[in-house]
Write a structure and sequence with these properties.
Helix content: 40-55%
Strand order of the largest sheet: 3-2-1-7-8-9-10
Strand content: 15-25%
Number of helices: 13
CATH topology: Rossmann fold
Structural class: alpha/beta
Largest sheet: 7 strands, parallel
Number of domains: 1
Number of strands: 10
CATH superfamily: CofD-like domains
Order of helices and strands: EHEHHHHHEEEHEHEHHEHEHEH
Shape: globular
Radius of gyration: 18 Å
């Protein structure tokens, strides 16, 4: 079964690390708007594409050279990441970010393929409910003080979807919208011209995995239906079939707000609801990657 995951670095890589243990043909479509930390500095200094999210997904799917995987995750005192240096250096040496990704897939013998959502250089911009604009994924992702809620996000300039991403969507049996930051990790992929249209045309079963807790400054007070309505606002009709929810009764820790699973309202939207216990025992604020991967594989077997 051909499974395509769509998302950003941390949430998607958490899933991929465990999904690779199942008999699935995996392709990860990864957001290309990261602008913070080491990635942001490399974008400014070298004019390269953002390597951070792709690096995380490559390491998650890697099956060889664990010492190189560990080195690639190393962060220096100045905040730079060794793996980011590797990808950016290969991009400049080989003449393309996609070529750098293909090279590292071979080195690490990845259990799946990585496709950047775009190779165009663009910044994520958020329009807030008070009409003001925030430019740059890092500025949107880490709010400074109180601010108005996000009304809409877009790319500046517009970006064309990478051909590899479109091809993967066309061939997919299942498309998984992964956990992670809604506006800064998942939706940026859907802003690339050609991806929403390809998803609509795809005959794949489309599954949305809802976060366990809301992101401060981004999805405060969101219920499951808010996530769904926001996602669908950036897609074409008939682009979502199933929602996967965490049914654990564990309460999140102080400072974390659980997403309310308003199942009846979801079903009234014509979307099928599937539930599983996904909460991490070690960290009740977040979803366990192994449990999520098992639930996704079970859905693939069930609906194949």
């Amino acid at each position: 079964m051909r499974v395509v995951t769509i998302g950003g670095g941390s949430g998607q890589s958490l899933l991929l690390e465990h999904l690779k243990n199942y008999d699935l043909d995996i392709t990860a479509i990864v957001s290309m708007v990261d602008s913070g930390g080491s990635t942001g500095e490399l974008r400014k200094e070298l004019g390269v594409l953002p390597p951070g999210d792709v690096r995380k997904c490559l390491i998650a799917l890697a099956t060889k050279h664990p010492e190189l995987q560990e080195a690639a995750a190393t962060r220096f005192n100045d905040g730079h990441n060794f793996g980011n240096f590797m990808l950016s250096g290969l991009e400049l040496k080989l003449g393309g970010f996609d070529k750098a990704v293909r090279h590292m897939e071979k080195v690490w013998d990845t259990a799946g393929r990585i496709e950047p959502s775009t190779l165009d250089k663009a910044q994520l911009v958020a329009r807030l409910e008070n009409g003001s604009l925030l430019s740059g994924e890092a500025n949107i992702d880490v709010p400074k003080g109180g601010r108005a809620k996000i009304k809409q996000v877009f790319l500046a300039p517009r970006a064309q979807a990478y051909k590899g991403a479109i091809s993967a969507i066309k061939k997919a049996d299942f498309i998984i919208y992964t956990i992670g930051d809604l506006y800064t990790s998942l939706i940026p992929n859907l802003l690339c011209q050609g991806i929403p249209e390809a998803i609509k045309k795809s005959k794949a079963v489309k599954i949305f995995t809802i976060n366990r807790t809301n992101k401060k400054g981004e999805t405060d007070d969101y219920e499951a239906t808010d996530y769904i309505e926001t996602l669908l606002a950036y897609l074409r009709p008939d682009s979502l079939d199933i929602v996967l929810l965490d049914k654990s009764k564990n309460k999140p820790g102080r400072g974390y707000q659980r997403v309310k699973n308003n199942i009846f309202q979801i079903e009234r939207m014509g979307i099928q609801v599937e539930e599983a216990i996904l909460t991490s025992k070690k960290d009740p604020n977040h979803i366990d990657g192994a449990k999520l991967a098992k639930a996704i594989n079970n859905l693939c077997q069930k609906f194949s």
